[in-house]
Amino acid sequence: MFIIKKIKLPAFLLFSIVLFVSSCNQKPQLYGTPNVDIATIQSQFLNWYRYDKIYIDLSKDYHALNSNSEEISKEEFLEELSMAKYLVVRMNSAENTTFYKLIEIPEDGNKEIGNQLAKKADRELRNLKLLNKPFPDFNLKSLKGNSYQLSQFKDQYLVLNFWYTTCGKCKKELPDIEALAQKYKYRDIAFLNISLNEVHTLNNYLDGKNYQVETLPMNKKYVLDSLSIRLFPTYLIIDPNKKVINVSNNSRQLEKRVKEIIDELN
């Protein structure tokens, strides 16, 4: 018969064990302090604008923190940002993880910062509604007479560029889409330009422009009502499972998202 005796540990050793167990149960801090002096970007609109352009990209995947540093959903984050009362800062964190935090703009702060971010938030909220949904199959003929269906892009990612000929930003970014498509032409990603214009309008506009990315006319009412795309240009990235995995509205953001996909495939 074994007799188990109680062992009395010295107080300092007992304290060390408790401290060790407690530290093991705590979640590691995934982010640190803001990567900018908040007072600096609040003081002048230009300071904020430069910072925001470099460090804040609301079209990417990120962890969202409210003004109390509590993690919230991306939708909640954007809804609060749309109130024009906050600016956004990036928190120091691991290279492959992004944390954005809401910082309340003081009463005597620059209200134009909040207004500009509110517009961005409204745009991203609309884009968010398109995410993680299956994209409907289509059967369209390009200006060159080639037929395209979504179902033919097996084991490929597909970028759809929704645009029209009287949209200044759309026209400005068409060469960017062409360059991006040529850069990754031998990778598992394809590009199509989807236009709301009639065939004759497109032919007139594209005459003399040697774009290799094919342009496909699509019914305007279908794009606006059925697909719920209201901002132009809108870039959708569709994965091999025919699901929308990213929505953006400028070619710079799109290029970053495409590069992230290519890096994952490597």
From TrEMBL:
Q: Does the keyword Signal apply?
A: yes
Q: Which domain of life is it from?
A: Bacteria
Record keyword Zinc present: no
Pinpoint the Thioredoxin domain residues: 129-266
Q: Name one Pfam family in it.
A: AhpC-TSA
Which of UniProt's keywords are assigned here?
A: Signal
Query: Hey, what's the signal peptide range on this chain?
Result: 1-23
Record-level Gene Ontology MF annotations: antioxidant activity; oxidoreductase activity
This chain belongs to the protein called AhpC/TSA family protein
Q: What is the lineage of its organism?
A: Bacteria, Pseudomonadati, Bacteroidota, Flavobacteriia, Flavobacteriales
